[in-house]
Specification:
The protein is of the alpha+beta class. It folds into 2 domains: 19-46, no CATH class; 51-168, OB fold (Dihydrolipoamide Acetyltransferase, E2P), CATH 2.40.50.90. Helices cover 30% and strands 18% of the residues. The chain has 4 helices and 9 strands. It has helices at residues 22-44, 51-55, 107-125, 157-162, and strands at 68-69, 77-80, 83-86, 89-93, 96-97, 130-133, 145-151, 154-155, 167-168. A hairpin with a 2-residue loop joins strand 7 (145-151) and strand 8 (154-155). The longest helix is centred in the first third of the chain and has 23 residues, at 22-44. The chain is elongated. The relative contact order is 0.16.
Amino acid sequence: MKYPKRDPRYDYGKPRRRRPSYWKKQALVVALLPGVGLLIQAWDSGGIAPASALAASQPMPGAGVNFEICDIVRETCVMDGDTFWLNGTKIRIADIDTPEISQPRCATEKRLGEKAKHRLRDLLNAGPFQLAAWEGRDEDKHGRKLRVVLRDGRSLRNQLVSEGLTRTWTGRRQPWC
């Protein structure tokens, strides 16, 4: 059977997309439920690796180490409120979000970022701590190691958040201005 030619004077537009049926949508929801459960579990646990991974994490740094504010030489120092160098390795604290100091959007963000940077330096110098791997990712897109800083089994996030210097990481940056 031959189909008639289309009239070139008429614009037929794009063909209509068919919407998925009710049952296809339901199947998709059922298929995604286990993944959502894992995300909720990771959110509740703060994204910290399980205890077995904590045991395999690095030994207690911080004992006898003195963190300074970073300048040109970056060996063991604090860059900003959520990034520091430890023995030549750049580490991003994975469970917090801090104000930017390199490219702040307002003076308040810059001022709060400077406070967070100095407070992080003080907390890292306060004694031994442990670095735990962030669940699911070892590095961020900038090549920084993603780690959670623990002291006595608790994340330093709690103290920084309670002081109003940082926020808990939600998966994306939020404005500070």
